[in-house]
Amino acid sequence: MGKRQSTLAGLVVNKMSWAGRNVFITGHTGFKGSWLSLLLGELGAHVWGYALAPATEPALFHQAKIGETIRNHQIGDIRDIEKLQSAIVTSRADVIFHLAAQALVRPSYDNPLETWSSNLMGTVNLMEAARRAQQQSGRPMSVVAITTDKVYHNHEWVHSYRENDRLGGKDPYSASKAACELAIHSFAESFASPDRVRIASARAGNVIGGGDWAEDRIVPDMVRALSRNCPVAVRNPHASRPWQHVLDPLNGYLCLAEALLSATPDQLQHLNTFNFGPESSDHRSVGNLVTQGLRHWPGSWTDISAAQGSAPHEANLLALSIDKARHVLGWSPVWSFEKAVEATMEWYKRADEGADIPTITQAQVTRFAQDAL
């Protein structure tokens, strides 16, 4: 990666790809969307956000004061296509990152209709709104649509899933995201072209990092227990996941968007779908994650798997191959599992102690960029 004068010098191929560029983010009020908004703002991009109000309290969006740092913050539902299209047109977007979703497995069992409508039809609306906005403006546009590592038909095998493996999903969340991949592929095949809209999808592993406050996610659940001096209740300690710090896949999304922006027509055929995950050695169990976390914020944990009874199905074994991103985009993860857990627990512990959250968040971005050099 080329070096340049920026605290984010190690993150992307070329800072000039982002300085002054209009970037539209759906889901900017969420955990990953807040971190992405911060990164793009540091790179000099004009960030336009469109999302529902933050779904958690507290929320990183408020804690890190993201609304004060971006060009425009609009509350809206991606299922409202007219409002969404109007927002994209107003932004004069060069790049769209689509992150808005119902993003959790267990809540998808409680409200499958909401999950399907938000994830599938929300994605279809985004693609169609982008297509219409591009036709109206006549300016080329690149779209990176974010799905998940759970789009694959999970055989519970030790092999890492590659981008051309079969899609599937037992639970409503995973299945709806697999359906999103089909919709994205359909729009790319039907409407994408080099001088109109360029479309790719990104499948990330299990992200961790400061500022995730969602229910039924192991790190926020762990932090809530530790802050109350309670044992951490772990419902599936033997399940293996591709853990990675949130900054690593976001770095990948930026690399993918840059590739879309600069690719020749011949190169575009290789820029379709990419996995972004950790190195194979960093696929670890939930129990290992908790044990590692407790090294940085001491406490105890208890296995409650036997008490789960007929709990909703969750995958026990899941791994991603990142060979394609490494070879096509030149991307690779920066932080190891141990470093990702250390940074995550440091963020939460300092926040719990009353540290200034915008400062500690920015400090982690700077450290990540330095480690990427």
Concise structural overview:
The protein has 373 residues and is α/β, with parallel strands linked by helices. Helix content is 42%, strand content 15%.
Helix-strand layout with pairing:
Layout lengths: L21 E5 L4 H12 L3 E6 L8 H4 L8 E4 L5 H11 L3 E4 L6 H6 L1 H26 L3 E6 L25 H20 L5 E8 L1 E3 L9 H10 L4 E3 L5 E6 L1 H16 L2 H4 L4 E4 L6 E3 H9 L6 E3 L19 H7 L7 H16 L4 H16 L1
Helix pairs in contact: 3-5, 5-6, 12-13
Radius of gyration: 19 Å
CATH class category: Alpha Beta
Cα distance spanning the termini: 7 Å
Q: What's the number of helices? A: 13
| CATH 4th-level superfamily | NAD(P)-binding Rossmann-like Domain
| Neighbour order of strands in the largest sheet | 3-2-1-4-5-6-10
Under the CATH scheme, which architecture would be assigned?
3-Layer(aba) Sandwich
Q: Could you report the average pLDDT, rounded to the nearest whole number?
A: 92
Number of strands: 12
- Give a quick account of the main beta sheet: strands, pairing sense, barrel closure: 7 strands, parallel
- What are the segments in which pLDDT stays under 50 over at least 5 consecutive residues? 1-9
What is the number of domains?
Answer: 1
Strand content: 5-15%
- Helical residue percent? 40-55%
Order of helices and strands: EHEHEHEHHEHEEHEEHHEEHEHHH
The CATH topology is given as Rossmann fold
Q: Name the structural class.
A: alpha/beta
Sum up the overall morphology in one term.
globular
